[in-house]
Amino acid sequence: MSFEGLRNLATSVRIFQRNVQDRKWEPEAPYMKEVVKPGDICLHFGGSDGRHSYLLSKQIGPQGRVHVYEPSNYSYAIMSRLIRWHGLKNVTPHNAAIGAAEGEMILSVPKKMTGHLGRAYGVVTSRGGTASDEKLATGNKTEFIDQPTAVTSLDSLMQREKLPRVDFIRCDVEGAEIRFIEGGRNTLERDLPSLLIEIHPFSLERNFSSSGEAVRDYFLNLGYRMWQLNDDNSHMFESTQIDPKRRWKDYFLIHPKRGPGLPEGMFRKAFAN
Per DSSP, which regions of 143-208 are E strands? Predict the structure, then answer.
């Protein structure tokens, strides 16, 4: 096994232990249990090491399904290995990015020197830029490499995987949120799934000529309500403001259609009032 392969394996072992010990979850993760229920069909875009898919798998049970998409070859190798190790029979991994249409693109991926997964697993650009451009775009001093990657869209994958609906989407695509919307309007407007979406205003503006407000407004115009964590991550509150202090932040978006069927918790109570 190559040195890179050994690093990848060691990282997989560390993340596996973290998962089974139920630690180091992202602060918004515990709130997913108030949105996802047994039997749900879930999509996870920007799967990284699969931590959200691991939690979703437990929430949805054997009758539910998770399809998780990760474009970085390095992260995909770890994620797919962990899905096998954890025995997640209801999770299917895919090595692809999510965009506006089927095709291929260049992904700028941080070069892994330690084996640790960094904050950004890949930066997708619509400008055909180089990896060095993306280094400037993110303000990241890490060395980047260019990786060709397959691209699919939400509407396309729904047909290809023969999914009857989608109930929940976790979306963390490093600024390509507007491309996710462009390639998924039919599904989003038909199913009105609940979402946990990470919005990257800086990358949206620089790389995609868009904005966090454009992403937000698309969903608000469909009737969605929006929640986010406060500054110290101690509680969730309802607000339609894109946090101006953060380069990226996670937001829950839930449509009133979903309110009555949500699990017991703060979101269901909000729709009952």
Answer: 144-152, 168-171, 194-199
Tally the C-alpha atoms within 13 A of residue 73's C-alpha that lie toward its C-beta. 13
Beta-carbon count within 10 A of 199 CB:
26
58-103 residue pLDDT tens: 999 999 999 999 998 888 999 999 999 999 999 999 999 999 999 9
Q: Are 130 and 144 in contact (CB under 8 A)?
A: no
Pairing between β-strand 144-152 and β-strand 97-98 as defined by DSSP bridges: parallel
CA dist list (Å): 172 to 5, 87, 98, 198: 25, 24, 10, 5
Calpha distance 198→228 (Å, rounded)? 10
Of 16-20, 35-39, 108-112, 143-147, highest mean pLDDT: 35-39
pLDDT of residue 129 exceeding 70, the answer is no
For residue 17, the number of C-alpha atoms closer than 13 Å in the C-beta half-sphere is 5
| Model pLDDT, residue 142 | 63
Domain boundaries, the chain: 25-97+154-272
**Residues 58, 33: contact at Cβ < 8 Å?**
no
Q: Radius of gyration (Cα) for the chain, nearest Å?
A: 18
Lookup: tokens for 170? 């976790």
CATH topology for the 25-97+154-272 domain:
Rossmann fold (3.40.50)
> Any alpha helices (H) in 143-211, and if so which ranges?
154-160, 177-182, 185-191, 201-208
> Distance between CA 242 and CA 246 in Å, rounded?
9
**Amino acid sitting at position 181:** I
Model pTM score: 0.89
